[in-house]
Amino acid sequence: MGKASTVSSLLCCPCRCLFCGVLSCLFSVLTCVFFSAGLVALVLYLLFRPHIIRATAVSADLSAFTLTPQTWILRYNLSLAVQLHNPNKRIALHYLDVAAHAYYEGQRLADAGLPDLFQDTGETSPLNPEFAGDAPLVGGVAAAGFRREAAEGATFSVDVKISAHMKLRLWVITVPGPKTQIDCPVRIQRRNATDDGGARPPPEFHPTECRVWF
């Protein structure tokens, strides 16, 4: 009985040692990989010091924004000028599949495609989405909100959201970046189209900082 146990131990120990050695080696390799990746990420962060982009709605024109009674069809003509600033000193940005979406009372009115954009380090670039057409307002709450704002000086709360896929250029290397979301909630006074045939300039617009997240 003792001899059989000794033989079994002699046969099992090498296998056990081999298995433990493989696990130990695998653990060491994974630890080294994660440590190296973290170190590289830290070095790149300290080297490039990435900063989040800044977006500002600098001007807007709402030449038409009227609601048809009973049918609740909203007719709109809106243009917005957004200044996009890249504060990074070593990272240039590519914006691909850029699109803008206009919302009123939480309901999407229209979409507008925008051209792809390359932004060098420290550069400020314009984005100029335009929306024109008509869309139904669903629900009495949205129509009531329109009537309230129309009575309060015809200044309307419109939300313009801009999305884009981003690529980062680090010197000569281009790497995929995050999907960028820009949210510009603006208050715009409707232009009085009854005066001078609509030839008057747009009402004064106060620049608005947009929210940016990824």
UniProtKB/TrEMBL annotation:
One of its GO terms (cellular component) is plasma membrane. Keywords: Membrane, Transmembrane, Transmembrane helix. Coiled coil: none annotated. This is Uncharacterized protein. It comes from the Eukaryota. The chain crosses the membrane at residues 27-48. It is found in: Membrane. GO terms for biological process: defense response to other organism.
